[in-house]
Amino acid sequence: MASDRSMQLLPATASDYRELARKRVPRQLFDYVDGGAYDEISLHENIAALQQIRLRQRVMRDVSSINLSTEVFGRRWSLPVALGPVGLIGMFARRGEVQAARAADAAGVPFCESTVSICPVEEVAAATNNPLWFQLYVMRDRGYAEGLMARATAAGCEVLVLTVDLAAVGARYRDTRNGMVESPSLPGRLRKAWDIVSHPQWLVDVGIRGKPLTFGNLEQAVPGARKPQDFKEWVDSQFDPGVTWKDIEWVRSHWDGPVVVKGVMDPEDARAAVDAGVDGIVVSNHGGRQLDGVKSSAEVLPSVVEAVAGRATVLADGGIRTGLDVVKMLSLGADACLLGRAWAFALAAAGEAGVRHVLNVIEREMLVAMALTATTDVGDLGPHTLDP
């Protein structure tokens, strides 16, 4: 972790990093991470639902020693959180995935490499000591997907996170307005250019010194791809809307470690996932970036946990910004949480130091929440920790 002296120079919370990131990176990039689908109702509901959950304060218990470590997929981590997959994050800081993975390494938590990362999995793995997780989409070109799994295995990745909620891509209107997903008109191109040159620090540090700014894991699939439009065209042609639970068997035949499916929001789907043989599920509405109007992750988490009935590890994401949010998700039944925007904004604002700091803040917030709910081990969190 960063020293106490350096901490004083950094924002106090993950939300503070969001505001700093807004100033540091071009708006088109900020909106790509900050935005959601359609009217962004589910994006905001993820946060609101967690804010409405009340913890049960208890006193006069011995909380002089509190354990935040937890075992997930055969490894013990310092905190019950992982840095979840965020696409294009290498555009937000120079070799951003490497910086974030180093911060996760230092904190003793997992880092999940996205299929659509800027830095290839080999580069990120070489910069870290702990094994990575790897996130994969189900592609029409099964051969390429198999090649990605082989690369991830060779790089030492231990857990495969299969994103399954992209049968269709949600309309993210901020990206449309900013020209992130479509070729803009001449005025639009001029606005994009001004957006970039008006952020000279980002332009030099990331745009120039951070090259190559290509999709590192997809170089063979999208040769020379340098624009989000290139990625969208690939997505439209390659994401497979015909995928079913039967495809888990195909994944299993090419991956020896734990398989986790990300994007489960229904108890029936949770049971189907476990019946298909997955090791874990992530209760996730894709950060409100897919189907707008769907419930928040926190709302559906208890019913999914009940459906799984201990047969698989249950993780959750969506709206988690603080250590209190993590405690609430664990109290609702999650075994661990994935962070997304919380670490992405910190990376954009302050690089590796920012991500380390956010993890440190989350740790301290968890310790306070645990102490004041009279809970000494994260494994003991449950419905009794909440005030109904």
Keywords:
16 helices, alpha/beta, 44% helix, 388 residues, single chain, two-stranded antiparallel ribbon, disordered N terminus, TIM Barrel
User: Mind telling me the CATH class?
Assistant: Alpha Beta
- Characterize the largest beta sheet: strand count, sense, and whether it forms a barrel: 8 strands, parallel
The count of β-strands is 10
What is the CATH topology?
Answer: TIM Barrel
Order of helices and strands: HHHHEEEHEHEHEHHHHHEHEHEHEH
Which strands sit side by side, in order, in the main sheet? 3-10-9-8-7-6-5-4
The Cα radius of gyration reads 20 Å
Tell me the number of structural domains: 1
State the assembly state of the protein chains: single chain
**Please, how many helices?**
16
Within CATH, the superfamily carries the name Aldolase class I
SSE-based structural type: alpha/beta
Range of strand content: 5-15%
CA distance, first residue to last residue: 36 Å
